[in-house]
Specification:
Elements (H helix, E strand, L loop, with lengths): L2 H9 L6 H8 L5 H8 L10 E4 L9 H17 L2 H6 L1 E5 L5 H14 L4 E4 L5 H10 L4 E5 L8 E8 L7 H13 L11 H6 L3 E4 L1 H12 L5 H7 L4 E5 L5 H12 L3 E4 L25 H10 L3 E5 L6 E6 L5 E4 L1 H18 L7 E6 L5 H8 L3 E5 L3 H13 L4 E7 L3 E3 L9 H17 L4 H12 L1 E10 L2 H17 L4 E2 L2 E8 L4 E4 L5 E3 L8 E5 L4 E6 L5 E10 L2 H16 L4
Parallel strand pairs: 2-3, 2-4, 3-6, 7-8, 7-9, 12-13, 12-14
Antiparallel strand pairs: 1-5, 4-5, 9-10, 10-11, 14-15, 16-23, 17-18, 18-19, 18-21, 19-20, 21-22, 22-23
Helix pairs in contact: 1-3, 4-6, 4-8, 10-12, 11-17, 12-17, 14-15, 14-18
Length: about 575
């Protein structure tokens, strides 16, 4: 069907409400808007669906939610009765429509005979991963768009291990969505009837308590917190999201006496009224937290994104101003701290392992290997780190003590298979308290790590390419880089080209071709002769191509110079 035909089908469907029909009628003369809403359906990938909310096939709405859930239900049904009997867990965040979308998904699953454990209110993403594992569910659904702006919502899908859906079942869901009619082939039922029949049951405080017990089990050195509890102050913000309840509770149970929460941002609100974007990667979102920290004399600020899977950190520098600790830097600090704390308290397992992604700083590998840990790379995404963790531990090759990626995500323990801001903030707080006991802030600690392990620098550029034309631009850019790979970048020769799509590596000087361990992902990597790595990949959830610049240098200034040089090359890719 053409986009116009699809538009007409939706416009006249009895499934639409009067408000939805009016919304579509209002764009009747706007060809570009009609095309943007109906040229295709939202693409279902291993991260599920994500898009702006509105009426249309290429928008997030109850019809798309039902459609995706029917496809997912059929994948579960085809796994057999033993899988079906395990049921599914469903969670949602603070965004507008999230609670409604979660109920709609639950009703579709129930209509297909799959029992649902639905959270009674919004919860952090890691608690969904925990619930899947704790209750032995076959799968999970989370209605969230993570840290995206307020116009977005999303549909994340999880498998029985508590990690996001692997590529094979994700491809099955996508295929079924292409085959199923969005209106006529979706089964649903009344919510109250589903509850009365026991097809939908609610999870609440009992699950919170079990989750918090596991989180507190990650404490390594409670005495470090006790020693500074009377003087240590920190500020926390949930950015209007799901962390507002469990994260302060976890920190209080850790022993933090002076936890100061940003009052305006403790209010749950899907419009995110105090920030342009609720993303802890953006320091401007911390303006209220910084004002509060200065007023209260705090040295550390932590913030979680709306679904509480990512963590941002700011610390007071020597000049009294607050500086950002990046995701890469936070991960390096945590890895080094966990190694020391576990050895200091006798909690280090045999054959410890650290995991990172291919776009995460190489400083993490240096920290791990210097301290006798094995270090492994995975593709971006915690499902890949979860898969690697399970593989290593099942085979007896090692025990993963920490896994992280540069985009402010961290995973610890065995109870969650996704990034987890609740546990990460607990660990960051313990670490900050321990350093406070040494008379140091996290900024001081980071400087000490550079002195010990060498100077590293990182920068991620987002080449935003929105809309229908943007999708074509993204594909064209990746195709052109494969057709004509660069021989030099910023005046520095490229030593190797790596293509993670086919797992190939080429030595630029000789043309010799070999293979690398990882393959099957649309990612390109350039290894430069000065030790720099530059990685280019399209985002799986947003309309942008991401360029990661990972440098090593003789000093901080040398790293900054290299980053500026290579960033100029990366910016030129969009032209």
């Amino acid at each position: 069907m053409t986009y116009k035909e699809t538009y007409e089908k939706w416009l006249h469907s009895p499934a639409l409400s009067d408000a939805e029909r009016a919304e579509l009628a209002a764009i009747a003369g706007d060809e570009r808007e009609m095309e943007s809403r109906f040229f295709s359906q939202l693409e279902f990938g291993t991260a599920g669906l994500r898009g702006t909310m509105g009426t249309g096939l290429y928008r997030m709405n109850i019809h798309v939610i039902r459609h995706a859930t029917q496809a997912f239900a059929q994948v579960i049904l085809e796994e057999g009765q033993q899988t079906v009997d395990k049921g599914i867990a469903i969670c949602f965040d603070c965004r507008n429509q999230s609670d409604r979308f979660a109920r709609e998904a639950a009703c579709v699953m129930a209509a297909n005979g799959i029992k649902v454990r639905l959270f009674d209110a919004l919860r952090p993403t890691p608690e969904l991963s925990f619930a899947i594992r704790a209750y032995g569910c076959a799968a999970g659904i989370n209605i969230t768009a993570s840290h995206n702006p307020k116009e977005y919502n999303g549909y994340k899908v999880y498998w029985s291990d508590g990690a996001q859906l692997p590529p094979a079942p994700a491809a099955q869901v996508a295929d079924k969505m292409r085959r199923l009619d969005v209106f006529d082939e979706v089964r649903t039922m009344d919510y109250d009837e589903a509850v009365a029949r026991g097809l939908i049951t609610l999870m609440g405080a009992e699950t919170d308590e079990a989750f918090l017990e596991s989180v507190l089990g990650q404490v390594n050195d409670r005495e470090a917190v006790e020693r500074v509890a009377d003087t240590f102050k920190m500020v926390y913000t949930p950015f209007h999201g799901t962390g507002y309840k469990l994260i302060p509770e976890a920190l209080r149970r850790l022993g933090i006496k002076h936890l100061i929460c940003v009052p305006e941002q403790m209010v749950v609100d899907g419009n995110f009224p105090t920030v342009d974007s609720p993303n802890p990667e953006n320091p401007e979102g911390f303006h209220l937290a910084v004002e509060l920290a200065k007023r209260e004399g705090a040295d550390c600020i932590v913030g979680s994104d709306p679904d509480a899977d990512r963590v941002g950190v700011m610390v007071r520098a020597k000049d009294g101003q607050f500086k950002v600790i990046s995701g890469n830097q936070t991960g390096v600090l945590l890895l080094d701290y966990l190694i020391g704390a576990k050895r200091r308290t006798g909690k280090m397992p045999a054959n410890p392992v650290a995991l990172k992604t291919i776009v995460t700083t190489e400083m993490a590998r240096k920290v791990a290997e210097t301290n006798g840990l094995q270090s492994y790379d995975t593709f971006t995404g915690f499902k890949f780190m979860a898969e690697k963790k399970d593989q290593l531990e099942r085979s007896g090759q090692g025990k993963v003590i920490f896994a992280y990626e540069e985009s402010y995500g961290y995973m610890m323990g065995d109870y969650v298979r996704d990034k987890d801001a609740v546990t990460a903030i607990l660990a960051i707080t313990e670490m900050a308290a321990w350093y406070a006991g040494q008379g140091m802030t996290l900024a001081d600690a980071l400087d000490a790590l550079y002195q010990r392990y060498g100077d590293y620098g990182e920068k991620t550029l987002n080449l935003v390419m929105p809309g229908l034309d943007g999708l074509k631009q993204m594909a064209a850019l990746m195709a052109s880089l494969r057709a004509e790979p660069p021989h030099s970048i910023g005046g520095t020769p490229v030593a190797q080209w790596k293509d993670y799509e086919d797992g190939s590596v080429v030595e630029v000087q000789t043309g010799k071709r070999g293979s690398i361990e990882l393959s099957g992902s649309n990612v390109l990597r350039y290894e430069l002769t000065d030790g720099t790595s530059i990685v280019v990949r399209p985002s799986g959830t947003e309309p942008k191509v991401k360029v990661y610049i990972l440098v090593q240098g003789n000093s901080r200034q040398d790293c900054d110079r290299k980053i500026a040089c290579y960033a100029a090359w990366a910016e030129g890719l969009k032209n």
